[in-house]
Target: D-alanine--D-alanine ligase
Amino acid sequence: MKKKIALVTGGFTGEHVISLKSAAVVEKTINKDLYDVYKILVYPGDWHFVSASGEKVPVDLNDFSISIGDEKITFDGVFNILHGSPGEDGKLAGYFDMLNIPYTTCDQLTSAITMNKGYTKAIVQDIPELNVAQSLQLFENSEKNRQKIESELKLPLFIKPNNGGSSIGMSKVKTWEELPEALDKAFAEDKQVLVEEFVSGREFSIGVFRGKGEITVLPATEIVSSKEFFDYEAKYVAGVTEEITPGRMNQEEIDRVGRVVTKVYEKLNCKGAVRIDYFLENETGKLYFIEINTVPGQTETSLISQQVRAIGMEVRDFYTQLIEEMFE
Model:
């Protein structure tokens, strides 16, 4: 008997466009011999499935089911590929927990914490061999806070929405004159903003997942961008960024990064696949934590897909491991 899997996509933020692209790849790639897959689109006040005939079928939120003709379909589990809110910030996880439906991503608490960049840094900063950049977490866009930034942090700075993704609303500030506009841009996306000192180093992104009861660290991808930083355009426009998988690290760096990201995964109680971004500082080689993404993209060219293929694993088998792990 094949398990019925709800592939949840869409979302309440600008990231829904990427979520739909990820879902299209997962839907095409997932092992149909093992699973019947139903793509569920989640938008504010509009959760639905589109049938083969094009009919829009609403989701019954009382038990997360759909009815096609006379058949009521309930789901054995959820493959969550909804980036941003509500799929990545814990809201969906809490809903599925109440219905006792397993899902492929982190639980409600971990999702909520890791969506907040400042809180995440506070939790992981005492992990051995891991460093975090000096930063301030702001809760209002005020003159007092602007003065606080100038007195406590050194240029250049990264200004980013604390709970955002895909680098939306993010700026690099090189002069104090640029600060007000950057703060306005970030606060337009979020009520909390993180201001971080710039770390000069090589940028990497690495996938970590739990499958068959074991934590696997994938080969890191080195990000070489023609832009000032790995922004939305660099992430999603072809040719702007060179992505090297496996990234150029020596064996000591590979081993150290593996130790650190495994500790991050364990300390945050992660589930499924996550992607951790970090710098290796130019002068010292120190590892600086940037952020963690608990619903990483799954497009054809996404970093996780590249990394899975780099270890000789089929992406289809990777998805199977994520699904089977949620039933354990």
About this structure: The domain at 135-197 is CATH 3.30.1490.20 (Dna Ligase; domain 1).
